[in-house]
Amino acid sequence: MFFLILTGKMLYIQATGQVDGFNLEAWAKDQREKKEVTPAKRGYIYDRNEMVLAQDINVYRLYAIVDPSFSPDPEKRLNHVADPATTAEQLAPIIGMDVSVVQDILDKGSADGRFQVEFGREGTNLTREQKLQIDALDLPGVHFIEEAKRYYPNGIFASHVIGLAQTNDDQLIEGITGIEAQLDELLTGTDGSVTLLEDRYNDPLLNEEVQVLEKQDGFNVQLTLDQKVQTILEDALSQVEAEFNPKRITATVINPKTGEIIAMGSRPSYNPNDLGNVTNWYNDIVSTPIEPGSTMKIFTLASAIEEGVYNPNETYQSGTYKIPEITRAVPDYRKHWGTITYAEGFQRSSNVAMAKLVWEKVGTETFLEYLKAFQFDQLTGIDLPRETLGRLVYRYPIEQLNAAFGQGTTVTPIQIVKAATAIANNGHMMTPYIIQSITDPNTGDVIKENTPTIAGEPISEDTAQQVLQAMESVVTEETGTANGIFELPSYTLAGKTGTAQISGGASGYLYGRENYIFSFIGMAPSEDPELLMYVTVQQPELEATESGSKPVSYIFNHVMENALHYQNIQPDKDQVSTVNELVMPVAVGLKTEDIADNLTSQGVQVTVVGDGPTITASNKTAGETILSTDHIILVTDQPKLPDLSGWSLREVVQLSNLLKLDHEIVGQGYLEKQSIEPGTPIASGDYILFDFTDFNPVSPEEETKESGVE
User: Would you put residue 21 in left (φ > 0), alpha (ψ -120 to 50) or beta?
Assistant: First the structure.
């Protein structure tokens, strides 16, 4: 009976492969079957010239087998760590651990009956070089698991744009921010595998079929960014951050004819290879609305020109503007310009000029239509995550006037950039984009390719050209707020400065000469712009002699000049210049009248200091090559201080050095005040204060929501 029962049980097991519901066949297969995963590569991210911006690199995780049973014949072959002391001594220096700590891990694992042990953080993310060093030691029982890690070759480089991807708890690389997160599904590939049967010693069984599943690597993404231009931008941002310690910086370079983003960066930023303490994960250019300040005036001017109600030669009374519907007048940031033309008002960034244009000429309802035509009430549609919409504040008369000069209403920097493409591109406003193409590396097929898209045509070509000319005058005319500060050596420039208040404080806004967002939007070459750049610097720490334009101009001038060259855009200043080269004649010791008349007759600007008959000093030496645009200073033997209003800082310092004065400088730009009255006789060693202060805020009692700055 026992024999029959046993035989029957055996026959049953043989026929069904099961014991008490347990599938022996599946268990056996599972014991013998080994599945080697072939990891798919995450897609690469490239710049426009196929320079790698983000890629996978192979790293290695170290482990050691400590179970003696894994070495069935230790005399012939050791498969486990049999000598923990020697293994620790050779392994520790390579992975950066103490020998005693490594040996303790090995000893403890063996004592606890564990099959294998790992070595914590130091045993992960090992480089190929470290792996090869350990392989060369031929240590029994020491093995590696190959893993992928996301790597960013340029470190802090468009970090908020490219974003960050890291290995998650399932050992898979996952996009967290930026393009990495937005296109995570496309960038992530599908792993392949090789399945085979092995014996207990991990040797393949003969004559067994091997099943292979091909991997599918993730799609590659090519951006419109130019690595060279972006690098220049990042360097400029880092320098300004170190020198001025601002709360925020943003900078965007775009091709206004296509909408392609050439460079985009902001501070604070982070290094995705070494995060440290990240204080800002957001891309402020698309995610943080700000009050734009006077850069909005280019759109106010555009609406007036388009409506046919703008006469640049018409005059108005600057200073303040009061209508019955508001309780306090709209102020200019300076109040002593008097009666000036609207053209000069735009150059000086007059709030009154813009408010009068909207209220008296364009009309508030029509102006609102233009704000919407420039799409300040819409997302730009840029292919970056977390884009946020600004807010048009336009219900009451004071809000409508404030909107004319960029106060109250909020926009994101990318909204300003998008709207400005209409000015630079003959009235055609382009949708900004940063993803150029997406390619399947497994087949070579381009699965998506972006092309330039016209988002709207808010103004005509003629209006765009007139606004460009007005913006160029802001840079070239002495009355312009950008004159002498924003300048490109090789290219003509059209631009507009901005100084905006920041919400906060008891009265709604912060006060103090540093508590503003200083900005500049510029286009070059000015006649037919190939690049457009917008820079904002929030709350920089300034010296008493520095203005908010200094950090902004450093970024803009440096980046824009180099970007234009790298884009192979032909310099145009020689084409518009009529400068002649001259030779400076002998002047010192000769008659004042003769030398001054000689230079003036050749078109050179000459300032004679004093009314003495003989020249004693000059800012140019005899025989020196000078230009017809140079300013020649001739000091006589009876020097009297001239009126220096409008002189540049360089010219004022030259004069002071010639007269050997004890001078002090306040501010930058062009001279506003001098502590010694013009016409006063002056001697070597006299003290003089030169005041270049470039804004003079009005008191909170005098202002509306607009600040006392332009």
Answer: left
Token readout for 682 is: 């002056």
DSSP track, 442-453: TT--EEEE----
pTM of the model: 0.74
User: Could you identify the residue written with the tokens 């000429």?
Assistant: 361
**Bridge partner residues of 581 (DSSP):** 627
- 8 Å CB contact between 471 and 423: yes
Of the residues 574, 604, 637, the one at which a domain ends: 574
Please report the pLDDT score of residue 505 as a whole number.
Answer: 62
Q: Which of 679, 607, 613, 708 is nearest to 648 (CA)?
A: 607
What single-letter DSSP state applies at residue 123? G
What are the tens digits of pLDDT across the range 194-236?
777 666 656 666 666 677 788 899 999 999 999 999 999 999 9
Report how far residue 598's alpha carbon sits from residue 632's, in angstroms, rounded to the nearest whole number: 12
Residue range(s) defining the domain that contains residue 19: 2-32
Burial tier of 284 (Cβ tally within 10 Å: 0-12, 13-18, 19+): buried
Q: Which residues of 192-207 are buried (b: 16+ CB within 10 A; e: fewer)?
A: beeebbeeeeeeeeee
Q: What is the CATH number of the domain that holds 628?
A: 3.30.10.20
Structural domains counted in the chain: 4
pLDDT in tens, 523-581: 999 999 999 999 999 999 998 888 889 999 999 999 999 999 998 899 988 644 445 67
Contact criterion met (CB below 8 Å) for 318 and 353 = yes
CA 666 to CA 695: how far, in whole Å? Answer: 12
Active-site residue, selected from the candidate residues 71, 159, 266, 294: 294
- The answer to whether position 705 is within a domain reads no
**Inter-residue contact 709 to 524 (CB < 8 Å):** no
Catalytic site includes residue 628: no
